[in-house]
């Protein structure tokens, strides 16, 4: 799959690609290793060095040295954007390889892998490069009431920024953490998830080849509770951008508090998908399936609570189940596959546990619920697309993030009730409304507590729009027109042009000078 080379991320360890970490411009290995396992086949895809806290320290030290040298942060923004352009060209030339990495390492079906492991990273890097070119790095700001003063607001990099990335979208989320931080002139340490380290390490080589100075971009592996937590608490780290579960997000916020770090958190969700009575049913049925099944439901923004008006409920569920029967679950490398595996034994157990819990809670299982069997399913981690009806919003399957292909269907009798159910959650990442009356859908959208609301659509994450959560789905925004704000400090500079001492101000402290 991936070529191994002495001067790149992967070497050969017993005939398998072995990935090293990238620290201070060097490839760093360890004796201990992680196994990277294909979730569809349980085959060993690669091994990876297992980082510890000493590697986290080395990466932060290298990043700090690089930042203090000034080489990257003093590189003009236009040149930093040109470096991103070169990475875009490098990734474009290796599209097929990265599509396959996404399928083997993460279980993405090929079509989806092409879009999410290559297309999105390319589009988003392009957005960050464009933004870097037109960002207001410095702007004049008049000083209130003082004609003979000049003011200047500068946007300056923060220093060492840490990105902590989960396994579900490894390259997209590495791009969201690393590229705007680098574009703004920071140094970066990315901690990848041990299950999915490959794409970020390959991109480290691309960034180096594109001209990012050594130490400015580092990638380490390591367990979250030790290495991740160590990075978050590290006194030389100025910012942590974390994507993962809400439970770990709370811990990140606590651990960052002692050193008053800036923290961006992109956390879990329990997206309510409201179908209004006047929805186009064919579109809404497909949309409901798409909303909860992308990447076998392992997407934070999934639509996992489907809210149906009582009048449409039975017909809609019937159509949805018929549609789900047409989907092909199986080998992600088969271009005909629609739904791939879930990420590994822990995810598998967790999802099946929720399916059992849903039945115990009194929900009705109307589709799926099991593990597919037969040829092609002897190995790997598989869960059938699963639909529960008769779900109440106080059940665990309606409140907790399952992170698998499981949909909870709830009934409502008035639009106000639908909005109330939708907002009755501690999450607030995504929501959706289906209606042929767009102004009416917009009125509903305004009342939903979520960072992204899709009308007659789902998963429409656009580079030009901010993405992030309300409530316990997170803090801060990624992408969008303000993406670089998250990785810069504002500095206000004033210049007194009057050539005189300001007696009114100075006099407050110094009194009347003897000469006056
Ligand atoms: P997780 O929270 O267990 O782990 C995420 C990352 O954090 C991993 O790299 C892990 O090693 C690290 N980590 C674990 N404990 C840590 C600690 N104490 N300190 C610092 N780092 C630590 O999440 P996961 O199960 O790997 O990923 C799935 C979760 O991510 C889901 O809840 C999903 O909703 C969320 N997610 C959110 C978004 C978003 O943009 N909002 C996007 C994708 C995934």
UniProtKB/TrEMBL annotation:
Gene3D superfamilies: Aldehyde Dehydrogenase, Chain A, domain 1 (3.40.605.10), Aldehyde Dehydrogenase, Chain A, domain 2 (3.40.309.10). It comes from the Bacteria. Keywords: Oxidoreductase. InterPro entries: Ald_DH/histidinol_DH (IPR016161), Ald_DH_C (IPR016163), Ald_DH_N (IPR016162), Aldehyde_DH_dom (IPR015590). Residues 27-493 form the Aldehyde dehydrogenase domain. Belongs to the aldehyde dehydrogenase family. This is Aldehyde dehydrogenase family protein.
């Amino acid at each position: 799959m991936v070529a191994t080379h002495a001067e790149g991320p992967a070497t050969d360890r017993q005939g398998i690609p072995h990935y090293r970490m990238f620290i201070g411009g060097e490839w760093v290995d360890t004796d201990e290793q992680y196994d990277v396992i294909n979730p569809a086949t349980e085959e060993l895809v690669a091994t990876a060095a297992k980082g510890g806290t000493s590697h986290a320290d080395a990466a932060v030290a290298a990043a700090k040295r690089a930042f203090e040298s000034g080489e990257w942060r003093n590189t003009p923004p236009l040149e930093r954007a040109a470096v991103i352009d070169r990475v875009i060209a490098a990734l474009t030339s290796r599209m097929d390889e990265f599509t396959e990495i996404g399928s083997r390492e993460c279980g993405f079906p090929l079509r989806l892998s092409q879009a999410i492991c290559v297309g999105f990273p390319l589009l988003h890097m392009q957005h960050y490069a464009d933004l870097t070119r037109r960002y207001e790095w410095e702007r004049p700001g008049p000083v209130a009431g003082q004609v003979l003063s000049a003011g200047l607001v500068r946007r300056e990099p923060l220093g060492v920024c840490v990105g902590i990335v989960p396994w579900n979208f490894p390259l997209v989320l590495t791009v969201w953490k690393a590229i705007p931080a680098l574009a703004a002139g920071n140094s970066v340490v990315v901690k990848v998830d041990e299950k999915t380290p490959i794409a970020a390490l390959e991109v480290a080589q691309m960034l180096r080849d594109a001209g990012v100075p050594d130490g400015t971009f580092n990638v380490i592996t390591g367990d979250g509770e030790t290495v991740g937590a160590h990075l978050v608490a590290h006194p030389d780290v100025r910012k942590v951008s974390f994507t993962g579960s809400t439970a770990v997000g709370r811990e990140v916020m606590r651990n960052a508090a002692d050193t008053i770090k800036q923290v961006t958190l992109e956390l879990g969700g329990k997206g309510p998908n409201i179908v209004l009575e006047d929805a186009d049913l064919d579109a809404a049925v497909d949309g409901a399936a798409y909303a909860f099944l992308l990447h076998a439901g392992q997407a934070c923004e999934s639509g996992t609570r489907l809210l149906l008006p009582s009048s449409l409920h039975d017909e809609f569920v019937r159509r949805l189940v018929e549609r789900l029967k047409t989907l092909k679950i199986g080998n992600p490398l088969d271009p005909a596959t629609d739904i791939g595996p879930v990420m590994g034994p822990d995810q598998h157990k967790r999802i099946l546990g929720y399916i059992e819990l849903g039945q115990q809670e009194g929900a009705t299982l109307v589709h799926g619920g099991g593990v597919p069997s037969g040829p092609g399913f002897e190995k790997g981690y598989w869960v059938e697309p699963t639909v529960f009806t008769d779900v109440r919003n106080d059940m665990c399957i309606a409140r907790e993030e399952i992170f698998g292909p499981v949909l909870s269907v709830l009934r409502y009798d008035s639009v106000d009730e639908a909005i109330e159910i939708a907002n009755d959650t501690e999450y607030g990442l995504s929501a959706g409304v289906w209606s042929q009356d767009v102004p009416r859908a917009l009125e509903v959208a305004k009342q939903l507590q979520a960072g992204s609301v899709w009308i007659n659509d789902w998963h429409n994450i656009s580079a030009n729009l901010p993405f992030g959560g309300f409530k316990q789905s997170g803090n801060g925004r990624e992408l969008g027109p303000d993406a670089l704000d998250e990785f810069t400090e504002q500095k206000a500079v004033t210049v007194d042009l009057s050539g005189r001492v300001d007696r009114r101000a100075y006099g407050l402290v110094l009194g009347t000078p003897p000469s006056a």
